[in-house]
């Protein structure tokens, strides 16, 4: 790839940020509140707009319903536009009501299954109002004990709800099915892995695609293989990027394992799936429990940019030649040369080309925004988990 093509790709890159990253969050042990946290969906969008203002590549905000419920979603969309961003994916929430103790769409009780499906369909109505293209489905459904419920019947119930939701989608709308190995269910999860998600999506049709949340696998899983496979099948709809040391830690992407992020981005580049019109949506799904939230999002976006820049710098011709020649060490060396490149000067130039400060973290810190919201927003509510 020429240097111009690398720069063009980096300028055109798009990363979607989650509204819930700006509110207070925590673990089951403690939620630490921070000064200036948003009190409303509008304030979450305003904070997200800061991330875009300083990075230039994050103009899309994911909403989570009901955490971000407002009376007029079209108006919220206009507000987002005024802030310089737009509303992206609508994330469903069928995991927070007492009713969902035994599951949502796979619950043995048909009344609760109907309630859960009603929420999914309502989220498509919201997509119509916001102009969103993607509906994200993550189900906490599963069981804690062997024998607790019938694994196979739960798959039937899941398939039924997915089919009804799929039917409701408009021509330009997609549903993105996210899998997760465990948590909150500890014995069996109804959508535990990419194979299960893929099989359901395949049956549903083209508008159903798989989401890879990078924190949702068993330790040691080769995530880039899943990326390569799903891309080859045209079934990779989106990422939830974050990083983890142990389980679903939801830490900043690229913090735990920047090399893994590079390997993932290399498969993206290899499949020409970086382009915003490729059908792959690059979202962050993170919680900043102890660190300041807006800078943590800026840092995360920068981490994705750095991994992407390195992936774009892989010498494809040299790599193919080494692979064809069976030159194991040569091929590995080509990949590592790209990974070992310091791409920060290149990204500083890309930002300058976009008319931005080359150092987003420092520029945000200087802007005074953090001090302003801390003074203006008194009585911030916990947003996201537990809201
Ligand atoms: C849950 O573990 C999943 O990662 C979800 O994508 C997401 O975190 C949830 O919808 C709440 O933010
Ligand atoms: Zn996720
Ligand atoms: Zn998760």
UniProtKB/TrEMBL annotation:
Gene3D superfamilies: Divalent-metal-dependent TIM barrel enzymes (3.20.20.150)
InterPro entries: L-rhamnose_isomerase, Rhamnose_iso-rel, Rhamnose_isomerase, Xyl_isomerase-like_sf
EC number(s) reported in the record: 5.3.1.-, 5.3.1.14
GO BP annotations listed: L-lyxose metabolic process; rhamnose catabolic process
GO MF annotations in UniProt: L-rhamnose isomerase activity; manganese ion binding
Top-rank taxon: Bacteria
Keywords attached to this entry: Cytoplasm, Isomerase, Manganese, Metal-binding, Rhamnose metabolism
The keyword Isomerase is annotated on this UniProt entry: yes
Protein name: L-rhamnose isomerase/sugar isomerase
Originating species: Plantactinospora soyae
